[in-house]
Amino acid sequence: MQKRDRYIVDKKIKRRRKFLRSLPTKAEYVLWQELRRKLLGYKFRRQVSIGKFIVDFYCHELRLVIEVDGPIHEDQIEYDNQRQKFLESRGYIVIRFLNDEVLFDRDVVLQCIEDWCCILDRSICS
């Protein structure tokens, strides 16, 4: 039986997750305030490790990963591509938003997330 990616235990990754949860970007904080209320009907977790990577938000039920990209991502395009390929190869769906989208077009972002939730869980959309 294959071990699930997100349960790989690594003390360094665990410390990094804790650090990231304690200092979210403004955009991550804003989106978390929306997702944690479960208005979309799904439970999301923040700063979850999947394999050796840490994702911003994750819905286990739908295998949906949400990433909020700030300016730092302009300098780590290759890393982000490698990370996304890893996640997608294991059946995760990854959607990305820019900080400004979350901060200034929150309704559009939430609608997009809701649409993906609906696509991934056809039972609620039928």
Question: How are the SSEs placed, and which strands pair?
Answer:
Layout: H1 11-22, H2 26-35, E1 45-50, E2 53-59, E3 64-69, H3 77-89, E4 93-98, H4 99-104, H5 106-120, H6 122-125
Parallel strand pairs: 3-4
Antiparallel strand pairs: 1-2, 2-3
Walkthrough of the structure:
The protein has 126 residues and is α+β, with helices and mostly antiparallel strands. The protein has a single domain, classed as 3-Layer(aba) Sandwich (Endonuclease, Chain A). Helices cover 48% and strands 20% of the residues. It is built from six helices and four strands. It has helices spanning 11-22, 26-35, 77-89, 99-104, 106-120, 122-125; strands at 45-50, 53-59, 64-69, 93-98. It has a four-stranded mixed β-sheet, with helices on both faces. Strand 2 (53-59) and strand 3 form a beta hairpin. The longest helix has 15 residues, at 106-120. It is globular. The termini are far apart. The model has no long low-confidence stretch (mean pLDDT 85).
